Amino acid sequence: MNEPAVRVDTASQVPPYAQIRAQLGALIVTGRLAEGDRLPTVRQLATDLGLAPGTVARAYRELEAAGLIRTRRGAGSRVAVPPADPARPFASVLATLARDFTSSARALGADTEAIMAAVREALGPDRS
Fold first, then answer.
1. Which residue, 22, 30, 17, is CA-closest to 102?
2. CA distance 90 to 17
3. What pLDDT does 4 receive?
4. Residue 95 has what pLDDT?
5. What is the pLDDT of residue 127?
6. How far apart are CA 103 and CA 109, in angstroms?
7. pLDDT at 104
8. How far is it, in rounded angstroms, from Cα 11 to Cα 18?
9. Which of 47, 50, 70, 93 lies 20 to 30 Å (CA to CA) from residue 124?
């Protein structure tokens, strides 16, 4: 990961660890981070983002639990081999993104219909 692809909005209602988890998960699922790519160390990413190392560590633990990364002592964290069932991590990341979006939208005062309207609009005319 050569460029800072992860950003944290400290004003967001979504916790920083969830923002990191969602952004890295999306980069992995979309292939922008490929199998074997090395992630920054917990300390390095925490320093880059101005966060506590425990915040980044929690995001990494959750990505590892979802099967998206693997961490080995001394070797760091790397993008994991895609599982045989590619829908599983995709569904997990998608659910996380949806929860994060919904939480942020509700914090703004949006009701369910406003949230659904925003999603329909974001999907555009081709909703398949």
1. 22
2. 19
3. 47
4. 78
5. 60
6. 10
7. 83
8. 13
9. 93
The 3 state secondary structure assigned to 25-66 is: HHHHHCCCCCCCCECCCHHHHHHHHCCCHHHHHHHHHHHHHC
- Determine the 3-state secondary structure of 12 from DSSP: coil
Separation CA 101–CA 97 (nearest Å): 6
Q: Please give the single-letter amino acid code of residue 115.
A: I
Query: Do residues 37 and 79 lie in contact, with contact meaning Cβ atoms separated by under 8 Å?
Result: yes
Angle between helices 16-29 and 87-107 (to 10 degrees): 140
CA distance 63 to 36: 14
Q: Could you give the CA distance from residue 21 to residue 65 in angstroms, rounded to a whole number?
A: 11
The pTM assigned to this predicted structure is 0.70
Q: How many whole angstroms separate alpha carbon 107 and alpha carbon 48? A: 27
| Beta bridge partners of residue 38, listed in sequence order | 78
